[in-house]
Amino acid sequence: MTDTMGRMHGDAQFAGSSSVPAHVEMMGFLGMGNNPMVGATVAVAVAIEEAMKK
User: Fold this and answer.
1) Taking a C-beta distance cutoff of 8 angstroms, is the pair 4, 12 a contact?
2) Taken in order 51, 25, 17, 49, is the CA torsion positive or negative?
3) Burial class (CB in 10 A: 0-12, 13-18, 19+), 9
4) Are the CB atoms for 48 and 12 separated by under 8 Å?
5) pLDDT value at position 31?
6) How far apart are CA 21 and CA 35, in angstroms?
7) Cα–Cα distance, 32 to 52 (Å, whole number)
8) pTM of the model
């Protein structure tokens, strides 16, 4: 689980600062389906990271 989240975080970091790439958002939503905490955590982490870049 930690490895997957680390990889997802890496994808988010390497993405352009303009918007979250579709595959990261999809991974977050799919994660919510399997495990609500993981999906929500990833979605929130990506949102915070994107907000801090601006």
Assistant:
1) no
2) positive
3) middle
4) no
5) 53
6) 21
7) 23
8) 0.31
pLDDT of residue 49: 81
Longest distance between any two alpha carbons in the chain, whole Å: 31
Q: Which of 2, 10, 32, 1 is nearest to 44 (CA)?
A: 32
- CB within 8 Å of 32: residues ≥ 6 apart: 38, 39, 40, 43
Assign 3-class secondary structure to 1-54.
CHHHHHHHHHHHHHCCCCCCCHHHHHHHHHHHHHCHHHHHHHHHHHHHHHHHHC
